[in-house]
Structure formats: structure tokens, C-alpha cells
């Protein structure tokens, strides 16, 4: 027996209303060529809430007492949260072999034994846990206070990240030695061990919420990979400006390899490392990180 989902057409006006509401909430932007995508992905939400069409859904998003939860839930529908451990190996090599040694040496000379790293848009947690494992492998942080903060706008992936339990697809490029040292197998899945989890905190955060970002405190390194591709130019500027404010002088910003700061910001210097090109917040004249 076949079942057919009824088509729910989205008018041009409904598209503009819903698109602008989503944009003001989180910076995700859909141009007119993406109208069909928004219509297709949100049609199931209209059906789920037993609404008559997208006009009613717009009013649901604006005025219903569950509107905040719905806006959070549709982030999963509108974005791709696909990720895995040790993604973009050459960038991670630059992180462990060049960026962290530079920061560690400079801070040790200054008597500062703190290291704070932000994984912005951490999805289900593979990135912050990868960073923690890399730091544990490096060693040299005895007596240091190391914090890795993972944040995401999706409550669903935050819950996954906090559980720290993963299937095999998350390990597609992971060396078997890391799995043995840092995970415990449970019913065919793999749980991140406590020594890794102790370095990582996971929180909900909208990257357009500049007030909450300011509360995070100063960072030494920010990972924000494959996130700003979902934003329009204005939202990208807002997010990158926030990153600049919370990064320490000399701190590093690591974007995805399809992303750049061209036409977004001139406040960072593009640094050519041996293993990768990354962005750095310049030091003040004569200053140290």
C-alpha cells in the first residue's frame, strides 16, 4: 500500500515572511532560489503541527507558546550536522604542530597556564572531543587549566554531544589507536572516556547572540568550520566580529576549507603555516600573546 504526502505550497509572501523570521533568529539565509528547499523541508513541520498551511506555520513561529522550541527544532531540518572525528587532518596537524606549541610557549613565558579553545558550531561533539584527544596526545599541559567549549544552536545535537556515544560512521578517518585509548565500546557503540570528557563542556549558543558570546570569556583558538557558509554576508560579519572580540591578541581562527574572510573582515591576518593557512588576530605593536 502506498501513501502520498499532500503537497503544501508556499506562496512567495509566505516564503519571505518565514525566511526573514529564520534569518532574524539565527542568521541562516535562504535566497529566492532556495524557496523550494525551505518549502520541502518545512512541509513536514506544517503537517506535524496539523496546520492548514505555511501562513498558519508562520503565525505558529511568531506567536505560539512553543515557538522557541520550534525554532530550535527546525535548525536540524535546515542545516547539515554531518561530521566525524579528526576531520580535515592537515588543519589539525597545523593545530598540534604549530599553533598550540606557539601559544603554549608564549603563555608559559608570561606565567599564564590557561588554554581555552572554542568549537563554535560543534554539532554532535566530534570536533571538541577530537581537540581534547589531540591535546592529551601532545602532553605538556601538566598544571595547566585547559578548557574546550563546544557550542551549537541545535538542542538535538547538543544532547548527542553531551552523551558522547558514537557509531562507526563517526570514526571513518580515526586511527584505531585513538579508539582503543579514548573510547569504551558499549552495545556496538563507542563512548568517549572520562579523561577526554573532563576537558570539554557543551552548551547551547546562537552565534548571533553577541551578549552571550561576550560571556564566554577570552579564547586562544576558535574552530568554526563549515558553519558560516549558511549565513549571508551581514550575519557572517556579525559572527566574525564577535570572534575577533573574544580572541586573545595572537589567537587563531580556524575556518572550513571552503570558507574565507574575503569581503567579510580585514581584522585578521592570513598566516601561512607549514601545514595549512589559518587566520590570526594580530598582536599589538611590540605585544605578546
Can you tell me the residue ranges where pLDDT is under 50 for at least 5 consecutive residues?
none
CATH homologous superfamily title of the largest domain: Vaccinia Virus protein VP39
Q: What fold name stands as the CATH topology of the largest domain?
A: Rossmann fold
Give the strand line-up of the largest sheet. 6-2-1-7-8-10-9
Q: What class would the helix/strand composition place it in?
A: alpha/beta
Name of the CATH first level of the largest domain: Alpha Beta
Along the chain, the helix and strand elements come as: HHHHHEHEHEHEEHEHEHEEE
**How many helix segments?**
11
Major sheet summary line? 7 strands, mixed
- Strand fraction equals 15-25%
Give a count of the beta strands, DSSP E runs of length 2 or more.
Answer: 10
Rg (CA only)? 21 Å
What's this, in brief?
The chain is an alpha/beta fold and 289 residues long.
Descriptive account of the structure:
This is protein-glutamate O-methyltransferase. Keywords: Methyltransferase, S-adenosyl-L-methionine, Transferase. It is an enzyme of class 2 (transferase). The protein is α/β, with parallel strands linked by helices and 289 residues long. The protein folds into two domains: 12-78, Chemotaxis Receptor Methyltransferase Cher, domain 1 (Orthogonal Bundle), CATH 1.10.155; 89-281, Rossmann fold. Helices cover 43% and strands 18% of the residues. The chain is built from eleven helices and ten strands. The strands form two sheets. Strands 6-2-1-7-8-10-9 form a seven-stranded mixed sheet. A hairpin with a 2-residue loop joins strand 4 (183-186) and strand 5 (189-192). Helix 1 packs parallel to helix 3 (54-63) and helix 3 packs across helix 4. 33% of the residues are buried.
Amino acid at each position: 500500500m502506498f501513501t502520498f504526502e499532500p503537497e503544501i505550497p508556499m506562496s512567495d509572501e509566505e516564503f519571505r515572511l518565514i525566511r526573514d523570521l529564520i534569518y532574524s533568529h539565527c542568521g541562516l539565509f535562504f535566497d529566492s532560489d532556495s524557496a523550494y528547499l525551505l518549502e520541502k523541508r518545512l512541509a513536514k513541520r506544517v503537517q506535524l503541527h496539523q496546520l492548514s498551511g505555511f501562513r498558519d506555520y508562520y503565525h505558529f513561529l511568531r506567536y505560539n507558546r512553543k515557538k522557541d522550541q520550534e525554532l530550535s527544532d527546525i535548525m536540524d531540518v535546515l542545516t547539515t550536522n554531518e561530521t566525524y572525528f579528526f576531520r580535515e587532518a592537515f588543519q589539525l596537524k597545523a593545530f598540534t604542530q604549530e599553533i598550540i606549541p606557539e601559544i603554549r610557549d608564549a603563555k608559559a613565558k608570561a606565567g599564564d597556564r590557561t588554554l581555552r579553545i572554542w568549537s563554535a558550531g560543534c554539532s554532535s561533539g566530534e570536533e571538541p572531543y577530537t581537540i581534547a584527544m589531540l591535546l592529551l596526545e601532545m602532553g605538556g599541559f601538566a598544571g595547566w587549566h585547559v578548557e574546550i567549549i563546544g557550542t551549537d544552536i541545535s538542542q538535538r545535537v547538543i544532547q548527542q554531544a553531551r552523551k558522547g556515544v558514537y557509531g562507526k560512521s563517526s570514526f571513518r578517518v580515526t586511527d584505531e589507536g585513538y579508539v582503543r585509548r579514548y573510547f569504551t565500546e558499549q552495545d556496538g557503540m563507542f563512548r568517549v572516556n572520562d579523561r577526554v570528557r573532563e576537558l570539554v563542556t557543551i552548551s547551547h549558543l546562537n552565534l548571533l547572540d553577541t551578549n552571550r558570546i561576550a560571556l564566554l570569556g577570552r579564547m586562544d583558538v576558535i574552530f568554526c568550520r563549515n558553519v558560516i557558509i549558511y549565513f549571508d554576508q551581514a550575519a557572517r560579519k556579525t559572527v566574525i566580529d564577535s570572534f575577533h572580540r573574544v580572541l586573545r591578541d595572537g589567537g587563531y581562527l580556524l575556518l572550513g576549507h571552503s570558507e574565507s574572510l574575503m569581503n567579510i573582515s580585514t581584522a585578521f591576518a592570513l598566516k601561512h603555516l607549514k601545514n595549512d593557512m589559518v587566520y590570526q588576530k594580530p598582536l599589538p605593536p611590540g605585544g605578546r600573546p
